[in-house]
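hey
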């Protein structure tokens, strides 16, 4: 009687090796732990009929096997088609909104390219504190304007 390794059983059943290990753990497959060339490995003596890979008839195409509307009622098909149309309309709106955002970003870039970059608030604040506490007296401003002796030197 032939025995199968886990990869061989997975290929026969059309599932992953991880699924075969789950089947063994759940008791769906009987396996014996034997010494193999690289250590202990599971050997599966027989594959149950209920786990065998389902064969598809040759007259079906891949599209027939993956038909999302197979077996659905006409009302369900109508609802699905309506939802697909709404999805396409929303995708078109999203594309238009994305294009509008790109246009506005390019306009904003054109407007702001000629301006010098603003000094961050914390640098302005720090410069004011530094000037205030550096010990250098700041020229006092009066509400009446500059003193008369300075007015004469300006002209």
């Amino acid at each position: 009687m032939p025995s199968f390794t886990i990869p061989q059983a997975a290929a026969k059943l059309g599932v992953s090796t991880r699924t075969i290990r789950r089947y063994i753990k759940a008791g769906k497959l009987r396996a014996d732990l034997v010494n193999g060339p690289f250590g202990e490995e599971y050997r599966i003596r027989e594959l149950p009929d209920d786990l065998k890979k389902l064969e598809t008839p040759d007259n079906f195409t891949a599209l027939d096997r993956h038909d999302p509307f197979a077996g659905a009622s006409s009302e369900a098909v109508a609802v699905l088609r309506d939802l697909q149309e709404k999805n396409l309309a929303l995708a078109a709106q999203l594309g238009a909104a994305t294009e509008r955002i790109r246009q506005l970003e390019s306009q904003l870039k054109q407007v702001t390219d000629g301006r010098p970059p603003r000094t961050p608030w914390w640098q302005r604040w720090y410069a004011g504190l530094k000037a205030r506490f550096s010990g250098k007296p700041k020229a006092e401003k009066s509400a009446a304007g500059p003193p008369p002796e300075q007015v004469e030197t300006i002209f």
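The mean pLDDT is 78. The helical segments are 6-13, 17-26, 62-65, 74-112, 121-133, 148-154.
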